[in-house]
Each structure stands twice: as structure tokens, then as C-alpha cells.
Amino acid sequence: MMHQTNGMPAVELSDATLGDLPDGVSTPSYDRTKLSPGIVHIGLGNFHRAHQAWYLHRLMQQGLAFDWAIIGAGVRPSDAAMRARLVQQDCLTTLVELDPDSASVEVIGSMIDFVEVHPENAPLIAVMSNPCIRIVSLTVTEGGYYQSEAGGLEVDHPDIAHDITNPDRPVTAFGAMIAAYRARRNAGYPPFTGQSCDNLQNNGDVLRRTVVELARLTDPDLAQWIDQTARFPNAMVDCIVPATGDAELSSIRRLGIDDHAPVTHENYRQWVIEDQFCAGRPPWERAEVTIIDNVHAHESMKIRILNAGHQVLANAGEILGIKTITDCMADPLTRAFFHNVQTQEILPYVEAVEGTTPQDYLTLVEKRFSNPKIRDTTRRVAFDGSSRHPGFVLPILRDALASGGPVEGLALVEALWARMCAGIREDGTIIDSNDPHWDQLNKAALRAKSRPSAWLDMHQTYGNLSDHTRFSDAFSRWLNLIWSDGTYAALKTYST
């Protein structure tokens, strides 16, 4: 089917139309009919398709890994919409790389199917139970692992409580994985590797803990089998992938492609994985993935400089009405704030890795954040602060307090988050709900306007940090200044 946009025909993406795409669009050189599944990916969104799926596509372009094709999956009703969009175009995806000076367009074909989304996950369990599936990977967000404040399984969460009571009809990805492990063990099949692709420190260990602890509550013998025979490699993943909106859809059509789920991404990728797989793996190193024995230092550098750095910028940007991370970096005060917090209060707690120093990585991140082609919204980056601040920022703060280092900038970062969660920008416009716990955050933020300590009373987030007067005093001072004189006044005071 052809669509007309500004006089240019747009080809509706499918296997049948790959040969009709505009000149300059890279397409699969391999025969997709010869692909067979080896990976199920749960939580299939933009990041996965620009990252893991692209790396696999790159192997397939070399004539490798044809038995490792991806089957997409989701466990939320909203995943059904993504499934519908992708299935109608044969699970192909257009990737647009946004270099500051150019753009390249390619269609990747490493995904071959998408499991029907069902509330009790029977189709997903059936697919994962097949021994041809040797890896189950996930992008379910940093907060999607049901971890309690103490680091264990959040057994009181309604989803987890449901899966404990109904292990054969689970609603979570982890309950579905356990049901598939049970089916494989009972059939005499080996387990699959569980592979987290989320931005979590020790993400593989977190995935193992969630799966094994949940299994132990219903089937201790199965839990032991999973713990002893399955593998859950830690990994560091890195690529900035904005959300797809009307502008991106229109841009793709102007290029001559009618793709219902295109992806834009920066001109940078990195993937570092521990070589811990129980049922084989694609030859990732042939696609320039770094295979390593211990990924911790790489994880820490990326999470502390890039992911925590995103939180340094995003809340200030939301309060000020600055639309994107690139725009934040173009604003002199927010850029100076970012740079000063990084160099004075984050880099001292980041180890070097082979080939780069923390300062070199910061320079790279500043360049990436400043890419004018990447329209990564402050709203997207600020989403789910209740997971991202405890995961990315607060561990650095604890290290700084333990070592006696400065914490003024990190305290200001937390004060900006508290101010953002009040739900109104400085120009009077409303900040819509942007966190799974928004109501609780909003109430605490409004109480903190007159009593800043009310924000730090959220012990599920801050633990005992309010007992550290160097932090709590600085936090209160900054929050009072933001409310009285504005965000720019606070940023200027910190940076001078």
C-alpha cells in the first residue's frame, strides 16, 4: 500500500515491500524465512529495538545467528498496541540514527514474531517453555523488579501476591518465567538464561533474586533448580532512544517509509555483558559487544555519570519548562549545574574502566546530551523518579556522606525533584502525573513547601538519609530557596 506525503510516496513497511523502499535505506541482506527463534524479549519498546535487536540484526547481516531470532512479548495490556503495530509490518523496524551532522536509515529484521498479550500469560509461558528459546531478556524499567526497600522481593505488592496465589496464571513477567522454568524442568529440558537489559546496578543479580525468591514462595525445589542451573548475566546497556511521537512518525513518512513504530536513536551504542549463559548465546563479540568477566565498573560509570546525570538535568528542566535534555545543555545555568555536580560530587565516586577515565566519559556524555538531533524530553527522563533517584543518585550521595565529600549539589538535585513533584512549573503550567507513585510524591512535595523535612520523611526512598544533617540541612536550604527565589536563583547560587 502506498501513501502520499508532501508529494513523496511512502511505502508501507513489510517483507513484501523491502525492495520498494527509497534508495539509501539499508535493509536485511539475509533471508528472513530462514530465521528461527532463540530469544524471547519481554517489554519490547524503542530501547530494545535500537539496542539488542540491532546488535542481533548486525550479526545476521554477517550470515550469523540465524537461530537466535527474537520473539517479542509483553505482560501489560498496553503491550497489545505495540504488538498490533509490529505484526502488521512483519515485525520489521525502521531505525533512524541521528548524528548531529547527518542521519542514516536502516530497517532491521531480527524480530520475527510477537506473542499474543494475555492477562494470565498462557501464550508467553508456552513460547518460553519451548527448548528452542535459550535466552529470555527483559526491559521492564528500573522499577519493574518488585524490589523492597531492603532489597528483597516486595511480597505485599498486588501483582506478586497474585502470582504467589496463582502460580499457573501469573500476571508478572517473573511469574511467567517461573511457570516456563517449571514446564521445562518437568519435560526434562534445560533452563534458559534470564538477561536483564535495564539500567540497574547488578541487573542480572536483581533479576535472579526476583525470580528465585518468587519461585521459593510457591515451589522451593523449583527455586533451587533455577538458582543452580539457570544463569542471569549482569550487563551494562547504553544508547539514548527518545520516545516516538507524531513528529517522528511524520519524519519517517517524509523519508518515504510508512512505519507504524519507527525508532530514532543517537549515534552511539555500548553493551557490556558478563559471559554467563547456560544455554549458549549469539556470538555477540562479532557485533562489537564487550564480553567480560565482571561488568560492575562499566555499570557504575554509566549509571552514575549518564543516568544520574539525566536526573540532575530533568527535574530542573521540567520546573523551568525546558522541553528537552539538549535544550537543558544549551541553557548556560543548567549546563553549568550539570558539569559542576558531575565533576565535584559524582566523578570522585566513579572508577576508571579499561580504555576510558571518568572525566573522558563525562566529556562523551556532555557531547551526547548536547546532540541537537536527539529530542529526548525532560518529561521522559524525569519519569519514575521514585525508582531512578534511589537507583542512580542516592547511592552516590551515600558514598559522598561516608567519605566526607561535598553534597551541596546532590542535595540540590533532590530539592529540585521535590519541587518538580509539586506538579506546577514556574510559569504556572501543570506538570501531569509522571510517576507510578505520583499521588504520594505530590502530597509529600506540597507538605515540603512549608516543611522541607516532609519530603525526606519518605523512608521507602531515603531510608536514614534524613539523619545526616549535612544532607538534610542542605536539602532544606535549597528547597526553601527554590520556592522563594526560583530555580535559576538556586542554580546560580550553587555554581558561583
UniProtKB/TrEMBL annotation:
<dbReference type="InterPro" id="IPR013131">
    <property type="entry name" value="Mannitol_DH_N"/>
</dbReference>
<dbReference type="InterPro" id="IPR000669">
    <property type="entry name" value="Mannitol_DH"/>
</dbReference>
<protein>
    <submittedName>
        <fullName>Mannitol 2-dehydrogenase</fullName>
    </submittedName>
</protein>
<dbReference type="InterPro" id="IPR008927">
    <property type="entry name" value="6-PGluconate_DH-like_C_sf"/>
</dbReference>
<dbReference type="InterPro" id="IPR050988">
    <property type="entry name" value="Mannitol_DH/Oxidoreductase"/>
</dbReference>
<dbReference type="Pfam" id="PF08125">
    <property type="entry name" value="Mannitol_dh_C"/>
</dbReference>
<dbReference type="InterPro" id="IPR013118">
    <property type="entry name" value="Mannitol_DH_C"/>
</dbReference>
<dbReference type="GO" id="GO:0016616">
    <property type="term" value="F:oxidoreductase activity, acting on the CH-OH group of donors, NAD or NADP as acceptor"/>
</dbReference>
<feature type="domain" description="Mannitol dehydrogenase C-terminal">
    <location>
        <begin position="294"/>
        <end position="478"/>
    </location>
</feature>
<dbReference type="InterPro" id="IPR013328">
    <property type="entry name" value="6PGD_dom2"/>
</dbReference>
<dbReference type="InterPro" id="IPR036291">
    <property type="entry name" value="NAD(P)-bd_dom_sf"/>
</dbReference>
<keyword id="KW-0560">Oxidoreductase</keyword>
<feature type="domain" description="Mannitol dehydrogenase N-terminal">
    <location>
        <begin position="38"/>
        <end position="285"/>
    </location>
</feature>
<dbReference type="Pfam" id="PF01232">
    <property type="entry name" value="Mannitol_dh"/>
</dbReference>
